[in-house]
Design a protein that fits this description.
Length: 568
Amino acid sequence: MATKAKTKSSKRSSSNSSKKKSSRANSDKADFLFGFDTRAWTSAIKTAPARQARTGHRGTVVVVSETQAKRAFSVLKSQLGAPLAKWQDEQLKSWLEGRRGEEVFSLALRDGPVWLLKVTETVESIKESGGMKAGQDPLAKSGFAKVRDAAGMVYLAAKAAKLEKLVLDFTHASREELQAFLVGLEIACYAFAEVRGYRSSAWKPQVVLLAPSNLEDAKELKALQTEAGRLGVAVNLARHLTNLPGGTLTPTVYAELARKLVSDLPGVRVDVWEERRLKSENMNLLLAVGGGASSPPRLVHISYRPKDRGAEKKPVALVGKGVTFDSGGLDLKPSSGMRLMKKDMGGSAAVLALTWWAAETGIPLAIDSYLALAENAVSSNSFRPGDIIKAKNGLAIEIDNTDAEGRLVLADAMSVAVNQKGEDAPGCLIDLATLTGAIKVGLGAEIAGLFTNSDDLAREIYDAGLKRGDLSWRMPLFQPYRRSLGSPFADYVNSASGGFGGAITAALFLEFFVKNEDKVTVPWAHLDIYAWRDGASGAWTEGGGSGQGVLALTEVLGRLVQGKWAEG
């Protein structure tokens, strides 16, 4: 008896010690991530029987799957278990018949508010009915995006009502709808000031889930929750990094943060190139951009090599612009243009978040990620208009404008990526960058400009973005505009002085760096992003860093595993 008791006590002690170590590890991780916790809140949501979900003061989300309005009304009346006023009956019927044109319909009941969610016409339903017709929106919201954004609306309403319990009745929902709602909840609960401790911690109610009846077992449900949680955390991680001030997230701090974030994950190796290495590798463009700052530039190379590979055997190269603050350099920005320039590393934030997601998920796809980190500051060491700098690939670049610095840091990093040899040679290269104001003028904040030399890669990125509500639109690499990048003193200038087609000429400049030393052009896509939301919308319950590109490219990477990309 004594021996057994001792054994149990030992096990308990070991378990408690393990929990303390785990808690300490998570605390340390949040510490170097400036308060951000990579554990998903939504992964801990528990299922419960229907009778338990109907107790206490609560808010309830009910997914309506029945398409026939009369039958849906009858099912809902039974499902709600509470009488409705006559006027509520009439409004509910009107909503079910599609006359109100809204995805979410709210009811105030005795036991608390109810939000009914019914996904109407989506891009998927348009395709199923025979494809796009004249006048239909080619960027229409997907079902995933509609449910994801509905989660943000519900979260804010439930928070305002200070509910203690939120019941998710997804009994008749699809797996995709549950995943989208959980992703939306995870995104919605992020608040920068709360994460940093400037305000009280975010409101999180007890959440009870009535899972879809088509899920086979608890294991499948847990896998879905874990997947949704990681997606939401990846978006929020990119948002958090983008929100950090430029004086906090300097290139050297950022490089160390990236190392700590992923170096302990399976299959990951991190290599940080400091100044000496950058000089020996002729990374002169990156060095020039970062030369005026007290915190020197860095190139972070993260190599992810899983034990198993899917259909795509070649690595995917991801390159992110990481200008931690952009003053414009000697071509100084006006104060209004400089105000949000802490976000000029939003492309690298998305790449780091994607890399974390891939390694956490264990996706069977080799990935090489490159973060080109520099601060474009003003000092006696700043590079100057008229300077001629030799890029890593040997091209001589005349500086036309020091505020066209993002393409310079990307260029050297892209040269490193395309020149990997043997099994490390990339199958494709995707770069993300807050590169031009011109693309925002044309497409706005929520649609990335997509430039690519591959029709297949263009199709996958566009379609993946459409599915996940992380949109892009293909723009032309109009070759005659190359002439505006000519220089009488060097091979090219870094910025066309004409003023028109700025997003195109920036992409054309990057295209000079997608050919390797053997003169082989790598399939390449460039996403010109905003990486910011000027206000709250959808699942994003506050403005700030948006994590643009993360949802679309997680979907793209998943497709590459399955060998869906023709050129792969």
